[in-house]
Amino acid sequence: xxxxxxxxxxxxxxxxxxxxxxxxxxxxxxxxxxxxxxxxxxxxxxxxxxxxxxxxxxxxxxxxxxxxxxxxxxxxxxxxxxxxxxxxxxxxxxxxxxxxxxxxxxxxxxxxxxxxxxxxxxxxxxxxxxxxxxxxxxxxxxxxxxxxxxxxxx
Length: 154
Known about the structure:
Elements: E1 7-10, H1 16-25, E2 31-34, H2 36-41, H3 44-52, E3 56-59, H4 72-81, H5 86-93, H6 97-110, H7 120-128, H8 133-140, H9 144-152
Parallel strand pairs: 1-2, 2-3
Helix pairs in contact: 4-6, 5-6, 8-9
């Protein structure tokens, strides 16, 4: 039972059993919102009965999934800058690994000043200076595949 809630949004057509469940679950319910399509499918009898109980039914768009981040992007970016791997960040913040990758991509789109594991500018400059990828990898003591990745990244 949620006594503090006065407004709820529904996504299904109201039925008599649903109305009883809502009143039991939310005793202080004052307003039910739903999309216009759900409102149009709801019986006027139910809408009028709810009005007599001082519960208004309103049409309201409530599109799209709500953000689940709650400001967590900042912490993901901070931990990434501290050198934690996405898997470690996922475990520390108790969020899915895919969510960590998503938030890092989102953060990179906003701020492209994240610390990188390897200095991309230095690697590209060494390539312009005539060094081969294998020589760059040996000189900087980094994996050859990382050098190729950085050089091929657009």
